[in-house]
Design goal:
Two copies of one chain form a homodimer.
Chain A (H helix, E strand, L loop, with lengths): L4 E6 L5 H17 L4 E4 L7 H10 L4 E6 L6 H18 L2 E4 L7 H18 L2
Parallel strand pairs in A: 1-2, 1-3, 3-4
Chain lengths: ~120, ~120
């Protein structure tokens, strides 16, 4: 039984520095999860369509999209689910959308650790 | 010597569910860093102005703002630095702005752990 292909979904931006930050954020996941990919909702490639198409060509039919967003706003509540419905129809794939990473307790703990590191740097 | 007061800066939204996610993200930090606060850049209270004013009233003059943003876009490169300059002048405070949490390697590691948890849930 194959695992679903993991897609880390970022918003996307035409700013290369912005994309570089997301590529670095995704790097530990891409290094440890076979086949995992980054995709952008808009303004950058690869799009979700590109990544799903590529997977289907490889014979993958199940995908799990994990949003690299801190919280769910209009994009995750409305736009992305609509895009997924269309992608499922056009590619014959099954696509699951999870909550954004910011809804995981692990992220709040990481923020606490980042703040502690910051305090050690700034406290005389 | 006092540490600077830590302010976790979120974008802000009129959507209560969105703010709740950020309050939960901030909770481990607020529980472990004395005096730490959440502030919103726009669309929600408390604003940066409210939180800085409150700190100055308590005798605090040094603040460190840590953005709860995954990457730096126009807000963090331009809008927030301009707001900080005005806040420093109006409150006589010294305010340091750090990079967004998404630029810390700890965050990419947390994302990897979140994806692993997700895989364990979805893999038969």
């Amino acid at each position: 039984m194959n695992s679903p292909r993991i897609i880390l979904l970022a918003h996307g931006s035409s700013d290369k520095r912005w994309r570089t930050t997301f590529e670095e954020l995704a790097a530990p996941t891409l290094a440890s999860v076979d086949g995992a990919r980054v995709a952008y909702m808009e303004l950058a490639e690869p799009s979700m369509d590109t990544v799903i198409r590529e997977g289907v060509t490889e014979g993958i039919t199940e995908f799990t999209i994990i949003p690299l967003f801190l919280a769910a706003g209009r994009h995750l509540r409305k736009d992305v689910p609509e895009m997924i419905k269309e992608l499922e129809q056009s590619h014959g794939a099954s696509i699951q959308l999870t909550g954004p990473i910011g809804e995981s307790p692990l992220l709040g703990q990481a923020i606490r650790d980042i703040v502690r590191d910051q305090l050690e740097e700034t406290t005389p």
